[in-house]
Amino acid sequence: MDFRFTEEQEAFRKEVRDFLEGEIKQGLWKPAIDSWIVSYNPEFSKRVAARGWIGLHWPKEYGGKGYSAIHRLVLTEEMLRYGAPAALHWFADRQIGGAILTYGTEEQKKELLPMIIKAEAFVGLGLSEPQAGSDLASLQTKATEDGDFYVIDGQKIWTSGGSYINWMYMVARTDPAAPKARGISEFFFSAKTPGITIRPIVDITGDAHFNEVFFDGVRIPKTCMIGQKNKGFYQVLHQLDYERSGMERLMGNYPVFESLIKFCKETKRKGKPLSEDPLVRDKLAQLKLEFEIGRLHMYRVALVMDEGRAPNWESCMSKAYGTSFEQRLASTAIQILGMYGQLHPDSKWVPMSGLAYTSYLASRGYSLQAGTTEILKNVLAQRKLELPVQ
Predict the structure, then answer these.
(1) Among the listed ranges 50-54, 130-134, 179-183, which one has the minimum average pLDDT value?
(2) Confidence band (pLDDT; 50, 70, 90) for 297?
(3) Residues 131-150: b if buried by 16+ CB within 10 A, e if exposed
(4) Strand partners, 153
(5) Does domain 7-121 have CATH number 1.10.540.10?
(6) pLDDT band at residue 389 using 50, 70 and 90 as cut-offs
(7) Of 77, 117, 125, 281, whose CA is between 20 and 30 Å from 166?
């Protein structure tokens, strides 16, 4: 098997790196961990859009570049490597545009995809609910027909970037009498519609990128429905294959890894750099091996996408592996830094600008986001190993 990239792909990687390094040199933003979900910068998203890098692999007829999934993964990898503030356009580019392409009408494709590509549509995900947990089929938010409209009532939780979004993608129950997985539909509409209230949730890191979203008599046209009525749950399952496949599940904390290596080379204990300590070297080497294995998982997912099929069990395997790696990376960083690693990022004594501190706290939730590790393992067992359902 040839693991090399093509000359075109390598040239594209260099183009992306040159752009990001130029942005950092100009001081336009600072690298951050989990930048794909916590770093919001509309000006940066506009500059990315101007280069044609949003919707990179979508069909040209709708404004995309028609590039391969490998090209998009190269772009994603470099964005995360440099901790670029891409959160505003991330979800729309990663999965919502794909949902519209797969299930939307021709009118929806022509109206909505160009807005995403131009970084004009910043989309929040209305999936999880307080009482449903990981069981999306148990959601209770209702969309009730009223003439040519639907009226939405209910609540969503863990909506990333809710304070910044101007469009809402959500699923709601359109047939309360149907079996729970068969009465759900998908919708896409303006987050400025009357009746929507967004309330930030402060997480353990002190950040507030998660939000609660309340819908109180929100009235939207029927044309806002994506795909078939009452088939939304099954459409979402297809969409989640792409949500779980991204490089962010492996590289969201890559700035921690690079900073840790630099710290070990520059910091001395007993007159010698930490990097010469056999135990430290072993831990760093193990992380590097695990990271490269994770990259192969991710690129396999992209190859599957380029074959024209959804990366179902492949994305589950990649996501489960990637989040586990990120948790081990955070724990290893704290172990090597010792008590100093537990200092708040605002402390003048904190090493690595507090990246390890933030990474460790955030990593507790990685195996819950976008499907718990237990659910991912069940999908892998059933759909790849064909084991019986318990």
Answers:
(1) 130-134
(2) confident
(3) ebeeebbebebbbeeeeebb
(4) 142
(5) yes
(6) low
(7) 77
SS3 category, 337:
helix
Do the beta carbons of residue 106 and residue 59 sit within 8 Å? no
Cβ atoms of 29 and 39 closer than 8 Å: yes
The length of the chain, given as a count of residues: 390
Which amino acid, 179? P
**CATH 1.20.140.10 placement within the chain:** 244-383
Distance (Å, rounded) from C-alpha 89 to C-alpha 123? 7
**The domain 125-231 is classified under which CATH number: 3.40.718.10, 3.40.50.720, 2.40.110.10, 1.25.40.10?**
2.40.110.10
Asked if the model's pLDDT at residue 29 lies above 70, the reply is: yes
Please state, as a whole number, how many other Cβ atoms lie within 10 Å of the Cβ of residue 295.
18
Check if the beta carbon of residue 369 is closer than 8 Å to that of residue 159.
no
What would the mean pLDDT of 135-139 be, rounded to a whole number? 83
pTM of the model: 0.87
Tell me how far apart the alpha carbons of residues 30 and 3 are, in angstroms, rounded to a whole number.
32
pLDDT at position 350: 92
Instruction: Fill in the amino acid letter for 248.
Output: E
Taking the CA atoms of residue 133, residue 39, residue 239 and residue 202 in that order, the dihedral angle to the nearest 10 degrees is 10
Whether the CA torsion 336, 338, 344, 345 is positive or negative: it is negative
Q: What is the DSSP pairing of strand 268-269 with strand 184-190?
A: unpaired
Asked whether the predicted pLDDT for residue 296 surpasses 60, the reply is: yes
Closest CA to 187 of 112, 238, 240, 120: 112
**333 with 356: CB under 8 angstroms?**
yes
pLDDT digits (tens, 9 = 90+) for 243-293: 555 567 788 888 999 999 999 999 998 899 999 999 999 999 999 999 999
Q: What is the mean pLDDT of residues 150-159?
A: 94
